[in-house]
Design brief:
The structure is a homodimer. Chain A is built from 14 helices and 20 strands. By secondary structure, the first copy, chain A, is an alpha/beta fold. Chain A has three domains: 121 residues, Rossmann fold; 166 residues, Dihydrodipicolinate Reductase, domain 2 (2-Layer Sandwich); 81 residues, ACT domain (Alpha-Beta Plaits, 2-Layer Sandwich). In chain A, the strands form four sheets. In chain A, strands 7, 9, 10, 11, 12, 14, 16, 17, 18 and 20 form a ten-stranded mixed sheet that branches. In chain A, strands 3-2-1-4-5-6 form a six-stranded parallel sheet, sandwiched between helices. A two-stranded parallel sheet of chain A has the order 8-13. In chain A, strand 11 and strand 12 form a beta hairpin. In chain A, helix 5 packs parallel to helix 10. The radius of gyration of chain A is 23 Å and the shape is elongated. The two termini of chain A are 45 Å apart. At the A-B interface, helix 1, helix 6, strand 12 and helix 12 of A face helix 1, helix 6, strand 12 and helix 12 of B. Strand 12 of chain A pairs antiparallel with strand 12 of chain B.
Chain lengths: 421, 421
């Protein structure tokens, strides 16, 4: 089997290494496409590409090559990659990709094209890198009725938040993550939830059989989380994680991505560093947890290599049907509201009044000692209520004159102790 | 697709329910084989089998039926099931089974027969029930070089040991497990490790590409574990679990099953109740954790249904090659030795002398206060050493006149903090 590799960066070069280590002589890289390809030929992992391979800056050399059976795309982004992969599928080549955006935004059309051409489009590396969530669900959980998926699918945010749990400051940890290569110079795609949202949509198609538009999934930034949130979360038996969750009930998908309070007893709270973790909840099988290294060149390359090997072995992956569905960002959950105020009489009354107006019941009020009166952080938790009903109250409270910064409103995950027989 | 179901017990009847709930009208049960089939027809889940299905006590009615495409075997055991499944495969029928013994002891021949006949033999339910470890490894980790698998694959033992962690006594918990249906009247297959050993061999074939003989894997009983072991384990930052582990290095497989000390920081320590958990360690992808409900009718039925659905959707599972390999039961690890002695002077000297003779270094000696001198439990931990070298010392110590009961010798798992890039 002959592979045309698009992209010889961190993952692409790791894939070449993993392929070489597999000792599988029936699979070889015959073409490598990259911009500035001469520089790439000098890469320390270029030695893992068989001599005689074509290194090129013209993508057509790969897409039109008669001696390429599988196109492995490890560049990312929608444009121009979408057109390239359409061309590859159209030419009857299998495609293996790690491109979550492409699968999230264009999956339906691409799967249809692959089916029409009788080739496979595998994307095991698109979510959670080296953790086989995608093949695990496709091949091993298709027999269940999965009603919810939740988890941690962005390693950068998990690195930041799990480091903050140890006492570090957001800005400081972000800078460290950037220096270590875990976070981009512009960290928005990660910290604002857009990366996780695309992955959530990829999982929703597979697990919930729901094709949802990533743009409809509300994404909340983690950049407003501060050390004090971890202190209050701890008091509530929780920690803070960027959680991606989607649930299906009565034909409606509710989905969201953002920092949430996670009980310490939930497996989601166990993930440390750049670890990923996905929990599926099934009507018959209960909760299944997948976790491991979600990012990095080598773990991602393992997922790519597993897909390549599956094709080489003549395996055909289960193709599950999915239906276009609307997304509701709203969810019924207890909520955590954190305020930073300039202390004065009547604050609690004003906030309680705002909440009462929208019918939200206060469950607890927490205020630690030891803060100055001009920047006093305190927390209100609510009983379960629709997140949308809180929106108006939060907007009203944000405008109150004693607010030093906008209130932070987070969902609180509830551990579901449902058991199966 | 027409299914001939062998066995309408807990899992078989749950499978009928899960199939009915899937709404998949292209898949239906046309035959049900069971002894005492009239009684089974009265089962409350018999309603999930389509009317018109043949209920029979003659297995030939299923194996020879021209209108059965897939034989689903949920009875267990080697004999007579092996012959039946050979007949089914021989007749060109796909086979889906939850039978770990069959795959562990006869897998190689059966896979060869299936390949020869161009049909599939799927067994996702054979290990960890509803947790998709088998398809996850086959489809999603074949690209890695897995060097170790470890985990908890027997829910009964995990229920017993995690209950004992809470302070309960072995005999008491076993009785409770038997009453709840988690343990058999004769619990030997579970507590003595034979069930877990078969599952470990199934996983070793898939993950380590090593075909090993279950009889060669040493299995140690959990029945010697007592409350005091949990107390000492806690002091060592550990708990006790029945762990199944296999490791490959330099072409040799070392494997064993039995109660081991597990650090609380290891995911293996997190499993509670009847949960199963499998950790694979790969050269490129690092550790991947799978966990969830490993047993019970419905979770197991999910795995069976997923295999059935994969076949119905025209999927073909990756078939990984495996090589016959010898097993070494020996492992280099720190060990935990627990003694119960009638107190007298010179005990520590005698034990230390035994250990010194085999070259085992003592790492710590723990002795809690508050026990009577005639039944005094205490613990010695060793630095890493070959378990076989300890065997002689343990035998020698067992014969010492102050020993009230035979010493308990457990491996201590070490958490490997290897990271991947």
């Amino acid at each position: 089997m002959r592979i045309g590799l698009l992209g010889f960066g961190t993952v692409g070069s790791a894939f070449a290494e993993v392929l070489a280590a597999s000792g599988n002589e029936d699979v070889r890289i015959t073409h490598v496409f990259n911009r500035g390809v001469e520089r790439k030929r000098g890469h320390e992992r270029a030695k893992f590409v068989a001599t005689g391979a074509v290194w090129t800056e013209r993508v057509e050399d790969v897409l039109e090559a008669a001696d390429v059976d599988v196109v492995v795309e490890l560049m990312g982004g929608l444009d121009p990659v979408e057109g390239w992969l359409r061309a590859a599928l159209g030419a009857g080549k299998h495609v293996v990709t790690a491109n979550k955006q492409l699968i999230a935004y264009r999956g339906a059309e691409l799967f249809a094209l692959a089916a029409e051409k009788g080739v496979q489009l595998l994307y095991g590396a698109a979510v959670a890198g080296g953790v086989p969530v995608i093949p695990g669900i496709a091949q091993g959980l298709s027999g269940d009725v999965i009603t919810r998926i939740s988890g941690i699918v962005n390693g950068t945010c998990n690195f930041i938040l799990s480091s903050m749990e140890g006492g570090a400051d957001y800005g400081e940890v972000l800078a460290k993550a950037q220096a270590a290569g875990y976070a981009e110079a512009n960290p928005s795609a990660d910290v604002d939830g857009f990366d996780a949202r695309a992955k959530l949509c990829v999982l929703a198609r597979l697990a919930l059989h729901a094709e949802i538009d990533p743009e409809q999934v509300p994404a909340q930034t983690i950049s407003t989380i501060s050390a004090v949130d971890f202190a209050y979360a701890k008091e509530l038996g929780c920690t803070v994680r960027q959680v991606s969750r989607a649930e299906i009930a009565d034909g409606v998908v509710s989905a969201s991505v953002g920092p949430m309070l996670v009980p310490k007893t939930s497996p989601i709270a166990w993930s440390r560093g750049t670890q990923n973790m996905v929990v599926t909840s099934g009507r018959f099988g209960g909760d299944v947890v997948f976790s491991g290294h979600g990012a990095g060149g080598h773990p991602t390359a393992v997922a790519v290599m597993s897909d390549v090997r599956a094709i080489a072995e003549g395996s055909v992956q289960v193709r599950l049907p999915a239906k276009k569905m609307k997304v509701v960002g709203d969810v019924v959950a207890p909520h955590y509201l954190r305020f930073v105020v300039a202390d004065e009489p009547g604050i609690v009354a004003a906030i309680a009044g705002s909440l009462a107006k929208v019918g939200a019941n206060i469950d607890s009020i927490l205020q630690h000692r030891g803060f100055g009166g001009d920047r006093l952080p305190f927390v209100v938790t609510t009983e379960p209520c629709l997140s949308s009903t809180l929106k108006g109250a939060v907007a009203e409270m944000a405008a109150m004159k004693f607010m030093v910064e906008p209130p932070v409103c987070l969902q609180m995950l509830v551990v579901d102790d449902r058991d199966t027989d």
